[in-house]
Structures are given as structure tokens and as C-alpha cells.
Specification:
By secondary structure, this protein is α/β, with parallel strands linked by helices. The protein has helices at about 10-20, 50-60, 85-95, 120-125, 130-140, 155-165, 175, 195-200, 200-205, 210-220, 225-240, 245, 255-265, 280-295, 315-325, 345-350, 365-370, 375-395, 420-435, and strands at about 5-10, 30-35, 40, 45, 65-70, 100-105, 115, 120, 250, 265-270, 300-305, 330-335, 355-360, 400-405, 410-415. It has a ten-stranded mixed sheet, with helices on both faces. It has a three-stranded mixed sheet with strand order 1-4-3. A two-stranded parallel ribbon has the order 8-9.
């Protein structure tokens, strides 16, 4: 291993996954962290959220389950799958296991685009046009009801998305139609005109608290800039949902590669780069499609970055309901919590941690979500165990807090110790260094 190179510690991740899975008597498992970053790193080895979810899938296979793992590539840590190092590290790990990453997303360049693709099947999308319409309505910052949904082919799907997610017309009363609008409060603290014009797609992907104030200011004072903003918005939406781009997301027999992986190894590992982009609305569709078409009794569905989907509202009901809609399905979700101000995130966290949770850390604003309906002793035990787990991780050991309302209702500290082989290798390494 080259100096400074970091390898993924699969063996420790597998032991952590074994603790998290437990007896598999739960329908939902919430895995909470503060930031979406490397969970623990020491002596040139690291465990990332992506590796942990992969380990959950592998361990589930040992317990007789089939597993679908959906990883998020859009992260900022050094081993992110959008980076060459992270992509290569995970690919090297998968190769001897007979596994390959499967890509879902709009990209046409880069390492991810070289992978075999999964796509939403047209037939499934046509049967779930109402869900698509709800997601499109949630994604647009304009108060607009989706018109009749035609997904019979790519041109029709492109027209629907461009019309639904495009800018308001000049005839529309912008102040009345922008989400969060308050026509009696137009203040100087609205977002800057320049910033919005430079990056209008941020409005499409997230909605903006001060969108109404911005539009009011521009219409009243800078009409030329407002028109330029709308034109840029329109061009961005047309580019994001062109037929060419949609062909990378939707197609006939789109789940073929996933089915083949499940048949061959009983584990399919998908990676997506749609979170935080206009294409994010396709992720809940993919998750629902995987559950409808492939999952059910004897399956684990492990999702990375699930907290980001609270932005679209619809997944707040969709995700937690999957085990009831598909009896026997177990849902495990990795939920980073820092810096996410989505209104319905607490509701999603509450639903996904109600039965079983593994907690590395979390945003203090969400603490009360875990305490609701529980005793003061639970709160005290959780905080004490979180502190101890943090100290263990600072020392380079994998540690987290675990509770299960059925089998271990009080929070417990879990410290994952290195296996015998790892300890022997470490000791030999120290002896060699002393000898030199």
C-alpha cells in the first residue's frame, strides 16, 4: 500500500453490520450520523457509509436474504464514488466478490457512466404516473398542479417535465404561486438577484425560502434581470429533461442488470448521482420500482442518504410504508442529519428509527425526535453512549449506539473490535517497525 493510501476495512464493517442486523426481527432500521463522511479511520483503513451499507447487504446474504443496496455518489468525503480514488477502491473490493456496481443517473461522462445502467421501466412508470405527478409537483418551486401525465414515450415524458418544472409565465401572479410566498413581506434580506441568476437550477432542486421576495424585487425593480432569470430557468429545465438525458434514466427492461446480479449473487449494488440535482425526483420512483418489481419477503433494501429525500415530501410517507406494502421486506436507511433544514425530515427520521436504530451521531435539532414518548433514562443513556462512542471512534475503533424497541429498548454502546487476524497483522507490523 502506497504511503498515504487508504483502504476500505470490509472485515470490521461486516462485524458492525452483524450487530446492526441483529435477529432481523425489525421492518425498519435507521442509521444516523451527523455528517455524511467517513465513519472511522485509523492506520490506513477506513469505513465509509457506502462500505457499511455494502456490508449490510453481504451479511444479509449470509442470513438467507437477498439484498438491494443503493449508494449515493454525491458526497464530499475523500472516498466519494464521484472521485477516482473512491470509485476505484470500492470497485477493487467488489471484484473478488463477483460483484459490479450498477449505475442509475443522468451522467454521460466519468467513471459512473462507464458502468452498466439500471433504468426505470416504461411500463412501470406508466402504471405509476400519479406518483410521478406528485413528485414533479413537489420538486417545482411554483405552485402548480401537474396536468395530465403522458409517459407513453420519451418525447411525452420530456414535455410533461419541462412544462411542470419550468418557470412561471408572465401572466401568472408570481407572488401568489411561488411556494412560501408572502406578498406583505418583501424585505431586503431576500436572496441576491445575482446569485439566483447565476445558479437558477438550485431553485428547481430545493425550492427557496425567499423565492417570493426575490421575484417581487426583480419584477418591481429589475424587469430585464427577471426575464433573463426566467429564460435561464427554462433553458436549464429543457436541458435537464431532454429526451437524450431521459433515455439514460428510463427505458425498456430497465431493471435487467439488477435482476441478473440478484440471480448470480443475491446482491445488487447500485450507485446514483441524482441527489441535489433536478433529477432527484427519479430516486423515489426508482426505490418504489425496486420494491414493487424485485423486493418483498426475504429481501433487504439498503438506502444511502435517505434523509435528502425529505426535500420532496412524498418520500416521507413512501419510504417508511414499504415494509407494510411489501410484507417481509426489511428497510435500512443511512440518514446524515447535519445542515439539512427540510421541514419534514424529523417526521422521516421518527418513522425510520421507531423500531431499531444505529446511531453514530446526529444533529442536536433532531435529538427530541428520538426521545419522544421515551423516558428520561432513555435520553440519559443515549447521550452517555453517544459520548462514549465518539471517544472510541477518535481512538480509531468502530463504535455506535444501538437500540431495538423489541429486544434492547435501552440504548447500548457497541464497540466493534478487530478480529484475531487483524490484531496479529497489527502486532507483526509493530514488531517489524521495531526491528528496523
Amino acid at each position: 500500500m502506497a504511503q498515504g493510501e487508504v483502504t476500505l476495512d470490509l472485515q470490521t464493517a461486516l462485524r458492525a453490520a452483524e450487530h446492526m442486523l441483529g435477529g432481523l426481527g425489525w421492518p425498519r432500521l435507521g442509521i444516523l450520523s451527523f455528517k455524511d463522511e467517513v465513519l472511522v479511520s485509523a492506520k490506513g483503513k477506513a469505513i465509509t457509509p457506502e462500505l457499511l451499507l455494502l456490508a449490510l447487504g453481504l451479511k444479509a446474504g449470509e442470513e438467507g436474504l437477498r439484498a438491494l443496496v443503493l449508494l449515493n455518489a454525491r458526497k464530499e468525503h475523500a472516498l466519494s464514488l464521484l472521485g477516482q480514488e473512491g470509485f476505484a477502491s470500492l470497485s477493487r473490493l467488489l471484484e473478488p466478490l463477483g460483484l459490479k456496481l450498477i449505475y442509475f443517473g443522468p451522467s454521460s461522462e466519468g467513471p459512473l457512466a462507464s458502468l452498466e445502467r439500471a433504468r426505470l421501466p416504461f411500463e412501470w412508470l406508466a402504471l405509476n404516473a400519479v406518483l410521478l405527478a406528485k413528485l414533479a409537483e413537489a420538486a417545482t418551486p411554483v405552485r402548480r398542479k401537474a396536468k395530465e401525465v403522458d409517459v407513453s414515450d420519451l418525447p411525452a415524458l420530456s414535455r410533461f417535465l419541462v412544462e411542470t418544472l419550468g418557470p412561471p409565465s408572465f401572466k401568472e401572479d408570481v407572488l401568489a404561486r411561488i411556494k412560501g410566498a408572502n406578498k406583505y413581506e418583501v424585505a431586503a434580506d431576500a436572496i441576491s438577484t445575482a446569485a439566483a441568476v447565476i445558479s437558477p437550477t438550485s431553485l428547481i432542486g430545493t425550492g427557496l425560502k425567499y423565492a417570493a421576495k426575490f421575484f417581487s424585487l426583480v419584477r418591481q425593480r429589475r424587469k430585464e434581470e427577471y426575464r433573463a432569470y426566467l429564460e435561464q430557468w427554462r433553458r436549464n429545465v429543457e436541458a435537464a429533461f431532454s429526451e437524450e438525458v431521459l433515455a439514460r434514466l428510463v427505458g425498456e427492461d430497465g431493471l435487467g442488470p439488477v435482476k441478473e446480479a440478484l440471480e448470480a449473487r443475491e446482491l445488487a449494488v447500485l450507485v446514483q448521482d441524482a441527489i441535489g440535482t433536478p433529477h432527484e425526483l427519479f430516486l423515489p420512483l426508482l426505490i418504489a420500482c425496486l420494491a414493487d418489481e424485485l423486493a418483498g419477503e426475504g429481501y433487504l433494501l439498503a438506502l444511502d442518504g435517505a434523509s435528502h429525500l425529505a426535500r420532496l415530501d412524498v418520500p416521507v410517507e413512501l419510504l417508511p410504508s414499504l415494509p407494510e406494502k411489501h410484507p417481509g421486506l426489511r428497510l435500512a436507511c443511512f440518514l446524515p442529519t447535519s445542515g439539512l433544514s427540510y421541514e419534514r425530515l424529523p417526521e422521516l427520521v421518527r418513522a425510520l428509527t421507531a423500531e431499531r436504530a444505529a446511531i453514530f451521531d446526529l444533529d442536536p435539532a433532531l435529538e427530541s425526535v428520538l426521545y419522544e414518548g421515551r423516558s428520561a433514562a432513555f435520553r440519559a443513556a443515549l447521550l452517555r453512549c453517544l459520548e462514549l462512542a465518539a471517544k472510541e471512534r477518535l481512538a480509531g475503533r468502530m463504535a455506535f449506539v444501538l437500540y431495538d424497541t423489541a429486544t434492547a429498548p435501552m440504548p447500548e454502546l457497541v464497540v466493534v473490535k478487530a478480529g484475531l487476524l487483524s490484531r496479529l497483522k497489527a502486532k507483526l507490523g509493530r514488531l517489524r517497525r521495531r526491528g528496523t
